[in-house]
Design brief:
The chain is mainly α and 82 residues long. It has helices spanning 3-17, 38-52, 58-61, 67-81. It has a single domain (3-81), classed as Orthogonal Bundle (Non-ribosomal Peptide Synthetase Peptidyl Carrier Protein, Chain A), CATH 1.10.1200.10. The radius of gyration is 12 Å and the shape is globular. This is Carrier domain-containing protein.
Length: 82
């Protein structure tokens, strides 16, 4: 799954979970300044885990501050399952 695929998936998840308008996600988007609060981020991660049938390690999620970091974490988890 490419980074563009993951960006599209995360954008779809964000639209699915919230009714609020959010700016277009890019790899460089800061998760918190994009208008995503901590509860929405948790919901987005949970939704993504279900969509991709993965489990992201909590200890690594604490270090993620931008969309690129989240995409890299998801990619690493997908690669470990291949």
């Amino acid at each position: 799954m490419t980074q563009d695929d993951l960006l599209a998936l995360l954008g779809r998840g964000l639209r699915h979970l919230t009714s609020a308008a959010h700016p277009m996600l890019t790899a460089d988007s800061d998760l918190h300044s994009s208008g995503i609060d901590s509860l929405q981020l948790l919901e987005l991660v949970t939704w993504t885990e279900k969509e991709l049938d993965i489990r992201l390690p909590d200890e690594k999620l604490y270090t993620v501050t931008d969309v690129r970091g989240l995409c890299e974490l998801i990619s690493a988890e997908l690669a470990s399952r291949a």
